[in-house]
C-alpha cells in the first residue's frame, strides 16, 4: 500500500457522507467509514501493478481491528457533538489559522473549519495506528500532515471569510495586491516570507567589520576587525553550513554570533562559501574537505603564525569540519586545539523527519541524476526544509501574501532563509549516501576521504557540543550522539527552541534557557543526560565563550591590519562578494 492510498479512501468516505445532522447521518457515516476501511485493509501490491520481487519488497500496512473500531466510535461521537455545537453556535476553533473573529461570525465557515479539524485529527490518528515498518509509518504520517496542511479551508479564497471580509472592505484592492504578490513570487521562484526589499547583505545584515584575506574557487576567508585591545593567541575559525550562507551568524549587531566572538577577544575568521554555478558542478566531497576546510585551517595558521587554532562547525559545516580533522588526524596532524559543534550530525542514526526522504532508491536516483555532475538547486532544498513546517513556513504566507494581499513584516532570519545556495551534484550525492543512508562516518576506517581512512577515535581534542531541544533538522538526540564517538574531553549544552533560534540567542536578549550537566557523565541516551541536567536561564553563549577562552591561550596585542602581508592582503571588505551571489 502506498502512502497516497489512504487519502483516496478517505476522500471517498468524506465525499459519500453528508454533513452530520441530516436524516440518516449516523448510518451514512458508518457506511462510509466501513467502505473506507475495507479499501484500506484490502490494498496490496498487485493493485498497483507490482508483481514478483518488487511485490515482495513493497511496504505492507495493516490496522488492528480494535483500534479501527475505537477510531470509528470516536469519530461518530465527535461528529455528533460537533453538529450539536453548531446548532447552538458554540463552536470552538482552537487553531491559529482560524483565530480571526470572521470565522466565528460566519456559521458555515466555522462549521467547515471545525469539520476540517476533526477530519485532520482522525486521519492523523488513523495514520499513527498503522502497523508497518518504522520508515513506512513515518512516511505515511508525514504525507498525511502535508495533505491536511494543504487542504485547510483557510488556504482557499472561497472558504476563507477573513480574506473575503478584507476584499470587501478594500473594494477588491487586497485581491489585486495578492495577484501582484503572486506574480512577484513566481518571478523570484519562492514564496516571500518577509519583505525582501528591506534587506541588503553588507548594508543591514552581515555588517560586522572585516575583510576578505583569501579566496579560491570554493570559499572566501573573512578576517574580522578586533573589538578589543588584546586577543587570544589562538585564532578562531568558523565553518558554517554550505547549504546556506554564513551570515546567519551575523544578522544584526545585536544578535551576531560572529560579533559576539570578536567581542570576547577572539581573532575571528569565517569561511564564506561560494554559491556553486555550472563551473563547480563536478565538485566532490573530497574537494570541499581538502580545498575548503583543510585549506581554511592551514591559511588561518599561516596568517596568524599559530601552531594550533580553535574551530567551530555549524550544521553541515560541522560535519565537513569533523571530517577534515579526521583526515588530518590520519596524517598525524593536529592543527586544532578545540572543536565546537553546533546542531551538527556526525552520527546519522537519529535524523528525525528528514529520514522519510532517504532510502536506497532515492539515493540511487540522485546518483544517476547528478552523481557525475550537475547542481542540486538551492530553491529545491529550501522548499524541502520549508515543508517540514508547512503551516508556519508555507501556507501561512500563501494566505497572507495572496488571499489577503499583505506584505509580510521584515524579519532578518527569514530573509536569510530565502537566500538559498546550490550544491554540486557529486558532493551532494556522496553526502546523502555516506551519511544519511549508510552512516559511514562513525564506522572506523569504513570510508575513505582525501585518500585517508576516517576514524573519529583519533580526534582526541576537547569538544563543545550544542543541540537545540526542538530542532526538527538535527534532532537533539542526533546532536548529542557526537559525544559517544569523540574521545576527547567533552561538554554538552542543550538550548531551547529550534535549529536556528536556539543557536542565535544572544545573552543581551535574556531569552530562553539552556541545560548543562556538571558531573561529566555522558550516558548513551540523551534522555538520560537530560534527566541529570540543570536548567540555566538565558543564552548558552556565555558558557561556551568561557569554555573557549580556556582553550585559546594567553592574550596578545590585537593585530593592526588584516591578513599578513605580502601573501595575504585584504581583497575586499566583508562580507565579500561570494555571499552576494544568488542561486
In a nutshell, what does this entry contain?
The protein is α/β, with parallel strands linked by helices and 583 residues long.
Question: Could you tell me the number of beta strands?
Answer: 19
Overall outline? globular
Strand content: 5-15%
Rg, please? 27 Å
Strand order of the largest sheet: 17-16-15-14-9-8-6-7-4-3-19
Query: What is the first-to-last residue Cα distance?
Result: 38 Å
Unreliable sequence segments: 1-23, 39-56
Mean pLDDT: 89
Q: Helicity range of the residues?
A: 40-55%
Helix-strand category? alpha/beta
The largest sheet, given as strand count, sense and whether it forms a barrel, is: 11 strands, mixed
Total DSSP helices: 20
Word description of this protein:
The protein is α/β, with parallel strands linked by helices and 583 residues long. It has helices spanning 5-16, 25-42, 52-57, 65-87, 101-105, 107-128, 134-150, 161-169, 173-188, 257-263, 285-304, 316-330, 360-370, 378-386, 390-403, 412-418, 425-437, 476-480, 526-531, 541-549; strands at 62-63, 130-131, 210-215, 219-224, 230-232, 236-239, 268-273, 309-314, 336-342, 375-376, 423-424, 448-449, 452-453, 463-468, 490-495, 513-516, 534-537, 555-557, 572-573.
Features:
eleven-stranded mixed β-sheet; 583 residues; 20 helices; two-stranded antiparallel ribbon; globular; alpha/beta
